[in-house]
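Task: complex structure prediction.
Instruction: return structure tokens for all chains below.
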Amino acid sequence: MEGLILFAVSMLTLGAVYGMLCLALNLESGLGPLWDLGIVSFFGIGAYTYVLLTAPPAADHQSYIFGFGLPMWIGVVASMVAGGVAAWLIGLPTLKLKREYFLIVTLAFAEVIRQVYANEEWLTNGVAGIYGLQQPLRSTVPAMQYSYVLLALALLGLAFAWAVTRSIGASPFGRACKALRENEALAITAGIDPRGVSMRVYMVAGALAGLAGVFGVWYTTLIIPGQFEADLTFFVWAALIIGGIGNQRGALIGAFVFILLHDALRFIQVSGEWAVTLTSLRTALVGLALILILRFRPEGLFGERPVTFAQRTPQEAERA
Amino acid sequence: MRKRATHSFGLALAAAMSLGALTAPAMAQDDAVNLGLLVGFTGDMGPWAPALNNAAIVAVEEINAAGGILGKTVNLISEDNASTVEGAVRGATKLVSVNGVSAIIGPESDPIVALRGFASDNQVPVISTSGGTEALDDAGGTGTFIYRTNASDSFLGVVHAKMLLDEMDQKEIVLVVENLEGTQSAAGTFRDAYERFGGTITKEVTLAPGQTSYLSELRDVSSAEPNMVFLAVGQTTGVSFVKQAYQRGYDWTYWTTSDLQSPDFVNAAGVEIVQGIMNPVSSQVEGAESWERFSAAYEERFGEKPEPGFYQAETYDAFIAVALAMEAAGDTSGAMVDKNLVAVSGPEGTKVSSFADGVAALRDGKEIDYEGASGSLDFDEHGNVTIPSTRLLQVSETGEWETVKIVDSSAFPAN
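Output:
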């Protein structure tokens, strides 16, 4: 039983990292008007910023010139700042673009950034990556218990992302985002600045994804460019669509359901020969779930709910 | 409103429950030993992983046919690491936490590097059978729970250099490398060794993965007028590159790393294009009993011979060595495997080449030295092995990878 719990803890930890990314994506693409296919950019920039600030200097066989060995909390804060600044920089030329054009450009940016990780060895140690990275509070508990600590930290991070995105969703700024999403022309007539609002929501999403990058590093204890491929963006989108785009709760549940779907087949024990077939079915299972959801429940497990600000009449309250 | 939310929640719950029903876990049983194979069934390593799985099946069936480990049946639990580091952490956690495996065999370069802390924390040996990364050159050994049964890229770099200089008399070469971890690592170690032993790399050209056209890179290569080109590239890029070179009329001789050494590469590029391409692979010495036995058993089980360079023998050896370490310790825990793995692998002790022989010798109170199908399998203090000989393969007129010669590489410098 304890074994199952430990595995569940590992899955939940990864689910929490995906959850942060889903919440960030939901903020810009569900609540806001931005179809972002480059969420992985900020995840990666946050992760690399954290690593370069906190990792020890390069060993003989490594070639990165940074590695300041700074305390972890500085790395955590810096990862969020870097995610936000990167979003600002990418947003400058791209936020003029609408929907599908924005989508294509962000996808391209994500790939360009990944090529930078892979090619600029002086900065990132290239495709060999940087490994053996420290985890926080590692020495405070016995090694076997550490996964619980990591889960607790990831859940804290998730709670933080939840609080930020939720308060934005409920604020006038959040409503401005929604207005832009629904009808930009109408939003402008209501005095909303599309550029400014989009930029701000994009930067917040970038900062949150950057923070998620730190947890990604703590989970794997290394960093390589291969972790930041476009696959991750699509996984996060799939999770968000499963959960329900535009709905805070949907984004959160979607991340965990996605991880569960992906790993459920690990529990079916088969003979060695069947293992090959079974594992290739795993990704197909996620695809099937996605098709079924889009067919029968296009709004996701938790669809977006209209928010009404008017006082309910007693009759309405009773019906609800 | 309320009703709809309940409905949504019900749906989520139903989904979770139906998954839960699927998930009848196979927990560790007291009368069985679980061994894990953790390889990339999906992702980049997908084309190679089934071969490793087959090798693991052969090993486990052989152990069980010989009465199991300490009389207990061995279960093989094959798990996917999706060829990623996250996948490796998840897969390893599942193998150890849910299945209670005593050892994890198979993770490739990046995956095993991600598991270094995991291995010692959980006291479970993790043994790579195909990871060449230099990060493992001094990371493993007794007490670290990290080992590998294949040769390091740094040793393969020496092998390439020695073969080219001593066997082919090739003093100059153009190096073409794809920008991937594995290929960069292989090219880097080759460059070091080749230049150290007196060779000259006249030009080095880097290929970005996944391009549709490599024409400007081809022009770059041809400007050096090479008579041999060293290809450190993956399959997809490799096929594009050699095809486009052929279409342009470049008639170079290719020397390649094991990345291209597969029938798929030959089929995809076409025999007339890749005929004559050469690749040295690590190999057991010709006619070695352990290799012949493994090869025959594999062919009987799967209807095809194991391919040199596919790391099947390395995977098989890891399973047998772990089983022997458990027999030597009289205990099936991961900690005991870590303590005894180096001892049963030699070089001191009675030489044995199968699990059954090893068990018999151990029961007679002897120390043993397992001679593997992949080589003598003597772990050094860092959990690494060297390879006894190198087999030079060349694509024949019919498109087969044929052995041209076998060279004793046991005296090559380690890096």
